[in-house]
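Handoff note, outgoing to incoming analyst
You'll be picking up this chain. Sequence as last confirmed:
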Amino acid sequence: MTKAQRHKAIIRRRIFLSVCAVILAAVILLIVFAVKAVMSGGEKDNNSSEVSSLQSDSVSDVSDVSGASEVSSEQSSTPSYPETGPNGLDANYTKLLLVNGENPLPEDYDYEGNLTTIPDKYINGSLKQIDKDVWPYMQAMIEAAWADGVKLYVWSPYRSYSTQNMLFKKQVDRQIAKGVPADKAEDEAATVVARPGTSEHHTGLAADFNMADDKFETTEMYTWMQQHAADYGFVMRYSGEKQSITGVIHESWHYRFVGINAAKEMNRLNMCLEEYVEYLNKR
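Most recent structure output, in case you need it:
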């Protein structure tokens, strides 16, 4: 081999080695990029999984808060009451007319336009009229008490203005006889007998049962009424604990018709009629 041929062979070898080196470098670079791509993809999947997990947790938290809100709302909202009461009576029918010392009946109020006469067998007094729309509820209640062996009777239902005026004047005289100063006797009397025009008895929506005496609270009639009156739309109108609101002393014998579901709700909330009307007006 001549010197020229040897020189050419060396050049070819160098070119071949250079090409091999370039190819090897390229292969290494491809491998490096491939590894980085795989690692990057794995991290991305992991991050996506973590994000997905966090999002899932967030949704779960929101769901939990929503659930708590529903429970809270459920506890504070009015329960679901039936549409129908005993004897097929409309449980949603209400009479929430508020009559008291601060809310007298209007001068043009029709005292007798919506009254009906109570049959004698349900009466143990001289007064015999009640609101005609209330009577079916009262009759059903009395007959239910009788079926349970309880002798419940209506003693004092509707009273005319003149009757109430007479009863009020008698109570004023009693207060004076007890030593109450004349200028305070009417106010004291009004805690026992409402002033004419401010009595629930004028409306035909209320009645005293059996007697107007604290003894009523010791009878089986009172016990039965406490357990069942609301089922027929009646509430004990005046309790001692509410006297500062109603302005009337404790009267265990005086019941007022408000409606079946309204009566149940008033009892649930432990509200007298003044409080319940205000509560409804604020809703």
